[in-house]
Amino acid sequence: MPEIKVTPLGAGQDVGRSCILVSIGGKNIMLDCGMHMGFNDDRRFPDFSYITQQGRLTEFLDCVIISHFHLDHCGALPYMSEMVGYDGPIYMTHPTKAICPILLEDFRKITVDKKGETNFFTSQMIKDCMKKVVPLNLHQTVQVDDELEIKAYYAGHVLGAAMVQIKVGSESVVYTGDYNMTPDRHLGAAWIDKCRPDILISESTYATTIRDSKRCRERDFLKKVHETVERGGKVLIPVFALGRAQELCILLETFWERMNMKAPIYFSTGLTEKANHYYKLFITWTNQKIRKTFVQRNMFEFKHIKAFDRSYADNPGPMVVFATPGMLHAGQSLQIFKKWAGNEKNMIIMPGYCVQGTIGHKILNGQKKLEMENRQTVIEIERCEPGCCHLSLEVKLQVEYMSFSAHADAKGIMQLIRMAEPRNMLLVHGEAKKMEFLKDKIEQEFTINCFMPANGETTTVITNPSVPVDISLNLLKREMALGGPLPDPKKPRTMHGTLIMKDNSLRLVSPEQALKELGLNEHQLRFTCRVQLQDPHSDPDTLSRIYTHLKSVLKGYTIQHLPDGTVMVESIVIKVSSSAEEPNTKVLLLSWSYQDEDLGSFLSTLLKKGLPSGLSSM
Amino acid sequence: MMCHQVLQGLRLLALTLPELEAPLRGSVIRRVLGPLEGLVREGRRAVALMDVLLATYRSGPCDSRLVSLMASMLNSQNPSDAALCAAATLHPETCPPGLRQKVVAVLLGPLQMVTGVTLLDWTNDRHTDQQTDHRHTDRQTDHRHTDQQTDHRHTDRQTDHRHTDQQTDHRHTDQPADHRHTDQPTDHRHTDQQTDNRHTDRDHRQTDHRQTDEDHKQTDEDHRQTDEDHRQTDTDQDRQTEGRSSLSLLLDHLNHKPSCISLLCVSVSSAPYVTDMDSSASVILAVVSLLRICNGHSPSPESKAAIGCSKASTNLIGCSKVQRCCLDSLASLSTCPGAVERVVEVFHVLVQNLQNPDSDPTVLQKNYQAMLRWLSVSAEPNSLADLVTEDLLPVLKKRVCVVTDLLPVLKKRVCDVRWEVRDSTLEFLGQLCEALSCTVTPILLEALCDQESYVRASAISALARTLPLSDQQGEPGNQTQEQTLGQLLDILSQDSEGFPRRAVVQFFISWLKTHPSSSSSSSLCSVLSLGSTDLDWEVKVHTLELVELLMEETLPGHQESELGSAPPPYGGSGGTNLLTHTDLTHPYAVTPSQPSPLLTHTPTELTHPYAVTPSQPSPLTHTHPTDTHTHPTHTPLTHTPPTHTHPTTSVVCGLSRLVELGVVTALLNGLFDCDRPVALKACSLLLRLRDAVCPSRSLGKGAMTTDDTTVATVTFDLRGQVWEREVTRKLQEKRGSDWVKESREVGCDRPNKNRDSDRTDGAGSEACDRSTGKSVCEGSARVCEVLWSLGLEERQSVLSQSSDHVQNSPLSLLEDILNATDTSHTDEVIVDCY
């Protein structure tokens, strides 16, 4: 039986480092190629040596598909393609292709900034990797080769995020990447066909949560910002360049407009301006509202939000600043944080994930005193004496965590299953405990198998392929002419014909056509059978008796008594003979064509029982 | 197919075997050899199995059983499996010597079959081949009715079908007994053959044997005789069967598109590793003809391309996977001894690839890479040509033609709709021009306006490679050069993306290397000021690299010998108007023959704000520094014996020129940058600058000469800089602490005066009184004093800590552990990734 194998190299019962291998119909596909934000060592990237010991990735993989531009889905891509070595095609949507290099550059910068990171991919490698990328359009079927085809669906989550359907022959797998089933401020909701894949590989970040409405969280966010600004405080929002930043900008921009607020909003680097540029460029990927208003006003052209200069941080009065990076581990956001941390009027809003060990993680955990080594930035602010090596920073500002991440919650995941109607379900990108819960729920509600393999563990699903066969029109017409109920997709029906398997195609045609096409002569098969009967009459009389008997039993059939001493029922010929020695032992000879096999068998059984006594011989 | 557990087990074995020590290894091998043999005999031919065998082979003494197992792996009847196994043996240095020939045959066989180029000396094999072919045609002529299939075995099977059918029919009509009985055998037959059919792909030798047997049984009377003959020589026939089936299987494989592509990819990729001295030329030819086939050209008529491979060649048209493999191996084949013979063919097909409008961007990139490799091949025989043979000369002439053919295609490719292609082409153009010493500046200039930032960046990098050449060739384009520089500066100041801006700074770095004492320092000034305040950290780092280069060029420390040998002509031609940034040539540059209009001994002539203003020795220079670090680099001044040029004056000149170029400002921009790598680089450069030019005060006040004090008077402008306040504060702090120390040591009345003037800091030009030694006035500061006041050593040690040192410190770890005990709300934090 054909089978589909799925092996997560990353994101198996874990969040981060998404990388899933799928073997389907002899094709090997890698879904996503991400890095783990929580690790700095080998565990950061997927273990590609699992695929092959000798670095023959190109020979093994038929294609790589990237679902969206987040680093946990594409961060290891240049490493794989340029350092491990992969020359085959990489598929991603247009926005992902445009934005991916920005984030990879950002990531490279952060990594190079750390010590001992010399053997890391370069800008040139990122570019060379991007040159291997084949862009995808939504709902466009792309033929990777003669047998493998892929199709992208809208996934929400971030700009350009896509779910992909992978199809080889009649087998198919759908990989969701990260998706969001509720529309947000700048993106729409995920959507997919009722494509009935053999396996649906879904993320399960919020496997157990039913999230409160996003509106509530947004209102909460705006309220907090508003209060801080009103009391003259400064608000710092550390963000990564893309994604959430845009959403929050739209949010603040509209709020400022409505409330007629005057406090300045700043964006810290040129990076985000460029990101906004991409949002403008790919306006078709955003949600309907933004697209509608686009004609009058581009939502990404902000009136209140201006570029930030580092000298502004010392300006008196309230302000809101978006600064990178998002985890407060280096750069501008950290610098501003150190300046503002001592004032309880100020506030910091963390809108996303923070890796353990970063300042962001510490303050989210409620640390009020941060030990920091004497860095130039600190000297600058604190004017500590030269020579002192440690300095502690009092965290007096308000720390708020706000989750704006756009993943589907448990309800959303179930909704997607209802949409796609998969035969099997496979969960990745989540925590084991929560997956377990969701798995039970799915198996109960949909009565389908649900898998949750760990990294390196292979799930094998046996598929029951439906083989499509072309039917000739003649045969169909003939079938129609025979009458009976009209074809109904839900009711199976028997149909006779000749199956021709030739040149990788299957066709069902009428036997005549098959003979003609293959240049074969027709051979008629006739079945014969002898039945012995005790009947004390002459042979012709016995025959007449049989005729009468059959006439009474088989109503509605054509039965003929022919002058040449035979009885014919449809195509079945019955002859009577007897030997001179035993004139009473009649041997009935039955012969029928294979088409009348049913009737023939019936007659032979019937006649074996003998003739009823009260039969007249005509 | 091998089941998952077995595969995992094999993988584990392959990984652990090489790591095992001698006694254990031996016993493990002894234990596994049997099961492995079993797997091979069962017909399991996975690469993982071969990996284990190879690992075993590598890790222990050679076992004849092992080698025979490996040999039977290579004899696998599935050519793809065999090829993969053969390719696996290539990777480690060790391949059992007895298997080498077989490996080569397995790997090059498909290539030979498709291209028709003779690569293998298959005398034995050919013998069997011919015989086999005989048999084939015999049977075909007898049995073939209407179908003219290339797949012989298919035809056979069909014919067999008919036979069986007819036979069964006969039986039916002859014996009209119980129909059920007669019917069944027919069914049996059918299923039997279907299984056979299915099995052939997976392939077992047994199956094949069975099939051949069946074939034999079913052949007509005429053949029975020959068959019996065959049976007489049993072993001989066995070999023939194998030969026949392996070749026809190979043909089957090549006619089936997916397997054809993967098989050829393995074959072509391994070709460079199995090529030896004699065969390299023909291997190259085979790869070239494969590329031609991919471009849609049928294999050359004179080569006897394998009959029946026409389908294979149609499969390959436009197949970028095979093309990429071919180009890769072509690139590595360029170092082969036979490469010289094939230069023309190779270039021809490479240009053909370029001309093909359907070529994939990735193919084109590999095409360019291969071209570069082959250009170096074709360059060598230039010198060899006269020595070796006369025959090569026409070849070389042709090669030149090919290269000139290239330009129109490249021009077209620069305008390709796909940015990937444009980018690769521009990268290639840069390298090509460097290799051939020619220029294509207009094309590159046009590409500066490309809408894709990567392409703009590549155009700039290509310009950086070619611009020095255009100079050497004495092109009259001085004006164009000025224009180009202007355009590049525009990009640096206006481009929204980092890549082109990085490329611009790198352009100036390579430009400075080839144009020492560059003629337009105004451009350099702009590069430094724009680059050091750029948003992109790499632009900033590159700018600092440029600064480093300028420092090396300008400061005498690195060119001591030149200092002595070529004294710069100091002339009185200098004037105030010459100090504008028009044409500054430094006297200590590599070409010091030009008279410098800039420098002069008479400070009174200089009215420029940055200019050298000799003054009375500052009291500060006499004080002891607070930090007593030892500097790894010695001040060059202390080492340079005084020559007839005045070294200090040269230092003064150098420093003031650096100030003038904006080097000091750029360095301070870097130092106060929030990106650690930038700040670190700037810090170490500042340290070098300080050690090179500023008088070391650790020598004590007695060592201070008047010349040193001249250096100390060089000032620079602070105004409008982000770090103005910071630097001023540092200076004041420094001065304050110095004063305290000095007053302790000396106790004279001068410091009082000093302190007074400190209070009136920035009060006006009057405060800039020379006698007080005031060094900050009107927003300008003395370079040396600033350098000493910044605490550079300390900064450097802090900056050299990586940005994650906080999170990696044990203290931080402890904090995290403590916090982790209270994880009530962190749940969502962790989950809310990205």
TrEMBL record, chain A:
Alphabetical GO biological process terms: snRNA processing
The record's section on Pfam families has: Beta-Casp, IntS11_C, Lactamase_B_6, RMMBL
- The Metallo-beta-lactamase domain covers 16-233
Q: Which SUPFAM superfamilies match?
A: Metallo-hydrolase/oxidoreductase (SSF56281)
Q: Which keywords, in A-to-Z order, does the entry hold?
A: Cytoplasm, Hydrolase, Metal-binding, Nucleus, Zinc
UniProt GO MF annotations: hydrolase activity; metal ion binding; RNA endonuclease activity
Q: Where is the Beta-Casp domain?
A: 245-363
**Where does the UniProt annotation locate this protein?**
Cytoplasm; Nucleus
InterPro entries, from UniProt?
Answer: Beta_Casp (IPR022712), INTS11-like_MBL-fold (IPR041897), IntS11_C (IPR048662), MBL (IPR050698), Metallo-B-lactamas (IPR001279), RibonucZ/Hydroxyglut_hydro (IPR036866), RMMBL (IPR011108)
Q: Which family does it belong to?
A: Belongs to the metallo-beta-lactamase superfamily. RNA-metabolizing metallo-beta-lactamase-like family. INTS11 subfamily.
Q: What is the name attached to this protein's record?
A: Integrator complex subunit 11
Please report the organism this UniProt entry assigns to the protein. Oncorhynchus kisutch
Automatic annotation (TrEMBL), chain B:
Record-linked Gene3D superfamilies? Leucine-rich Repeat Variant
Q: Which PROSITE patterns match?
A: HEAT_REPEAT
| Residue ranges, compositional bias (Basic and acidic residues) | 127-242, 742-772
A GO CC term attached to the entry:
nucleus
The leader peptide range reads 1-18
Keyword Transmembrane helix carried by entry: no
- Which locations, inside or outside the cell, does it occupy? Cytoplasm
Query: Which superkingdom?
Result: Eukaryota
Q: Where are the HEAT-type repeats located? A: 406-441
Which stretches does the entry tag as region Disordered?
A: 127-244, 557-648, 742-773
Which keywords does this Swiss-Prot/TrEMBL entry list? Cytoplasm, Signal
Kindly list the biological process annotations in GO that this record carries: cell population proliferation; DNA damage response
Q: Where is the composition biased (Low complexity)?
A: 596-609, 633-648
Q: Which family does it belong to?
A: Belongs to the BRAT1 family.
Q: What is this protein identified as? A: BRCA1-associated ATM activator 1
Q: Which species is the source of this protein?
A: Oncorhynchus kisutch
